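Example: Transposase Helix-turn-helix domain-containing protein.
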Amino acid sequence: MTLDEFETLLGRVEPLITRQDTKMRRAITARESLSLTLRFLATGETYKSLSFQYRIGATTVSDIVKHTCAALHQVLKDDFLKVRNP
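Written out as structure tokens, the predicted fold is:
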């Protein structure tokens, strides 16, 4: 994936995956969430392995992947999934 393709994809999903900072901690950025999810989908690495690479808890990695995949499906389904009517 080129940088331009990544930026285009990020622009489409960013509104859906952006989180708010809290007083306790800074939110994980949409860019990092998308990067982590694409790495998981491309390599099949475990959540534990990704948690070490990104320095994020494994449970948080799991939540990010699920949430970002849902966002990717929502923004890409009309362009790439064809549904047949019976």
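The mean pLDDT is 93.
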